[in-house]
Write a structure and sequence with these properties.
Length: 637
């Protein structure tokens, strides 16, 4: 079967199941994972019109990850930023708020419930790791399909679906730093799924609890307690249609104590409580060759300490229409956001915003070894003019083993509700911040070219990217003609910036029992205008190198070693406005081992930061524990 025929056959048989599957390649010797995030329908990774990486369930289960951020550290071009109390996700040097998080294709966002943007919050609302089937990461703008907030890239979490038999899993994790001034953590999760009515109605349940002890070091990890509960009820009246009802309830509590993790200047202890509830109803269907995925989702996040609530309502419908030489995706989206903040300085305490979108993409297989994807999205926001976001992507299947990819895409980010609302004043220690109704969306233009070599037991890829960022929103001094209080600030569109880089990755099956993966990322960013002209856009290393070696020692025993090098960072840490302190380079080594006691019990143990690298705030801009030991016990039934 030709590559061209295989692509069309895959599209014609679409069910949009969102379930990870494997397909045998033409020579019968290779297996390729299917992905859905890059185009809205299932296709092989090498054929997707985007730079995309898949993290499978085996990788997710290997190790003592506290949240999704730690799992994503294995992906080239993806950086975990932050510190002990919470990490955030940056893709290709873009600020973290430009990374869109999805669960089964539905957007997840609670940042506006936090005055400072809520770094590290969204990741901890996500489903427990045991409920995840795979994670798809797209590097680069995807605003054409996913709209605002996808300017840096997309992380799509595909959850597990119930099967025709009841099954489940219980897992316990414990992590303990060697130095007792740092707090340890304990985590438990449960997953249960199965049929209620054979072939018609199924149920999936998941829960997670995490407790992190407070560090006894200034600016260290606060005491943290997280609870997450989720459920999915799936109704399949026939083979062509499925209806999913998803419910999620989660809460996070953090305590910072003076004399422990509070900053040295803090005078009082602090406690924060955040709660999130979400509801989603999704239909996936097949109407002959035509397929659709449609959903309505409502999520509400409440910041108890600030008496602040953000409620997002999203309605989206996407249709995939294959024909002889084309696969066309069309859809529409309605997004409504409501923010209530009782601590607004002025009388106004409620903001709402509506946005309406139409989008479409067409993948044209105009030759047996060439495909061209072109797409466009039109967004109409009630607060500013229509935004048009096109993208173009080409795949050349040069040989059975070589694929060349190249694309150009636009992205955009709408201002936050507080930033663009007239009469809104946010209380801030550095001076009140006024809303600006004439703000424009931030925009980007991204170009990339890459090559993939895939043959037998090895895969090698290389990608070069260039991203230009316009109309960046920044906070600056506010003239008294606009702001009534001297010393106030407001938001304006002023800055331009660029990010450029190289992403390399490879994976080799050295022996039947030995697997090696190597990753390297070079990222450089620069602000081209504004007060910080000449400075990098974000705080991250120029060079990042990582390698992992997995060894199947015995049938039931495997071990792994991970090595990571982070070069000197290209951005000042912001410790003082008069300093340009850069976080120095460092190396990390992690060891782990897994033992399958029997078909039901699995025990894991390991050491993180084997060389006991220490991270002090004065040097790195964050605090983190040195060497730590972890263990997990897992029971499946």
């Amino acid at each position: 079967m030709s590559k061209y025929s295989l692509l069309l056959a895959t599209a014609t048989g679409l069910k949009l199941s969102l379930i990870s599957t494997l397909v045998m390649a033409e020579n019968g010797a290779e297996l390729s994972e299917l992905v859905i995030s890059a185009s809205g329908y299932e296709q092989e990774v090498t054929e997707a019109p985007a730079s995309i990486t898949v993290i499978d369930q085996e990788t997710i289960n290997q190790g003592a990850y506290k949240d999704i951020t730690e799992v994503l550290s294995h992906v080239p071009g993806v950086f975990a930023t932050g510190g002990a109390s919470g990490n955030d996700i940056s893709i290709r040097g873009m600020p973290t708020k430009y990374t869109l998080l999805l669960v089964d294709g539905r957007p997840q966002s609670s940042r506006e419930s936090q005055p400072s943007g809520g770094g590290g919050m969204d990741q901890e609302w996500l489903p427990p790791l045991k409920s995840i089937e795979r994670i798809e990461i797209i590097r680069g703008p995807m605003s054409t399909l996913y709209g605002a907030n996808a300017m840096g890239g997309v992380v799509n979490i595909i959850t597990r679906k119930a099967t025709d038999e009841w099954h489940g899993n219980v897992r316990f994790d414990v992590t303990q730093p060697e130095d007792d001034i740092y707090g340890g953590s304990k985590q438990a999760s449960i997953y249960l799924a199965g049929p209620l009515i054979a072939d018609t109605l199924s149920l999936r349940l998941g829960a997670r609890g995490l407790f992190n002890e407070e560090d006894e070091v200034s600016r260290g990890a606060s005491e943290k307690e997280i609870h997450n509960y989720n459920a999915q009820l799936r109704y399949t009246p026939n083979d062509d249609h499925a209806f999913d009802l998803d419910l999620m309830k989660s809460n996070q509590k953090r305590i910072t104590t003076v004399g422990k993790s509070a900053a040295g200047s803090a005078r009082n202890d602090s406690e924060t409580q955040n709660d999130k509830n979400s509801f989603a109803l999704t239909h996936t269907g097949s109407w002959g060759d035509i397929s659709d995925t449609s959903y309505v989702q409502r999520e509400s996040t409440y910041n108890e300490g600030r008496d602040m609530r953000i409620t997002n309502l999203v309605v989206d419908s996407r249709w995939v229409i294959p024909s002889e030489e084309h696969i066309t995706t069309v859809g529409g989206n309605i997004t409504q956001a409501d923010l209530k903040d009782e601590e607004n300085v002025l009388d106004t305490n409620t903001i709402s915003n509506d946005q309406y979108s139409l989008y479409g993409e067409d993948e044209w297989f105009f030759a047996e070894d060439l495909s061209l994807t072109s797409g466009m999205r039109i967004d109409k926001n009630e607060n500013f003019d229509s935004q048009i976001s096109p993208r173009f992507y080409a795949n050349w299947f040069a040989t059975e083993t070589w694929t060349v990819k190249a694309g150009i895409a636009t992205g955009y980010q709408t201002p936050e509700l507080r930033e663009m609302t007239s009469g809104w004043v946010q209380d801030s220690r550095g001076g009140d911040i006024y809303g600006n109704p004439v703000l424009k969306p931030e925009t980007s233009l991204s170009k990339e070219i890459g090559v993939i070599y895939s043959a037998g037991n090895k895969v090698i890829s290389a990608t070069v990217f260039d991203n230009h960022f316009d109309d960046k929103i920044m906070t600056t001094s506010c003239p008294t003609s606009i702001c009534s209080v001297f010393g106030s600030r407001y938001n304006v569109n002023v800055d331009e910036a660029k990010t450029q880089g190289v992403e390399l990755s490879s994976e080799f099956q050295l022996r039947d029992t030995l697997n090696l993966s190597v990753r390297y990322t070079y990222t450089k960013s620069e602000q081209l205008s504004g007060d910080n002209k000449g400075q990098p856009l974000t705080q991250m290393p120029l060079h990042l190198f990582a390698t992992s070696l997995n060894w199947q020692l015995l049938d039931k025993v495997k071990a792994w070693v991970d090595y990571e090098y982070r070069g000197e960072e290209s951005q000042e840490t912001g410790l003082s406005s008069n300093t340009e302190t850069q976080a120095p380079s460092y190396d990390l080594v992690h060891l782990g081992m897994q033992f399958e006691v029997n078909d039901r019990f699995v025990v894991q143990a390991g050491i993180n930061n084997l060389t006991n690298e220490e991270f002090e705030f004065s040097e790195y801009g964050f605090v983190d524990a040195g060497r730590e030991y972890w263990a997990s016990l897992e029971y499946s039934f």
